[in-house]
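Blinded run. Sample ID left blank on purpose so nobody reads anything into the name before looking at the predicted structure. Input follows.
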Amino acid sequence: QVQLVESGGGLVEAGGSLRLSCAASGRTFIGYAMRWFRQAPGKEREFVALISWSGGNTNYADSVKGRFTISRDNAKNTGYLQMNSLKPEDTAVYYCNIVVGGTNIWGQGTQVTVSS
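Blinded prediction complete.
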């Protein structure tokens, strides 16, 4: 069973940057698309970005397009989310996700707080 662990969150001022990491263990995540989601207090979890298993295709929510970049290093079994020009509305817990055999696999999340 694959396990995901996010890291890299923290407190940053508006306009700043953070790089989140998602490390997979237990089995390789090669062959699986990876997604990032986020959940702000009192709101539903929302899609942020997706990357195909090869890294050749990406997709972003309109709210982060042009500011966030998703990537992956399959040799390291790790995915990334580079977040630039952060805004207070980006404050949330960020989760990485893969789907294995129809089952959603989630990490524990990492808190990102953007101060104004």
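Unblinding after everyone has recorded impressions. The chain has no helices and eleven strands.
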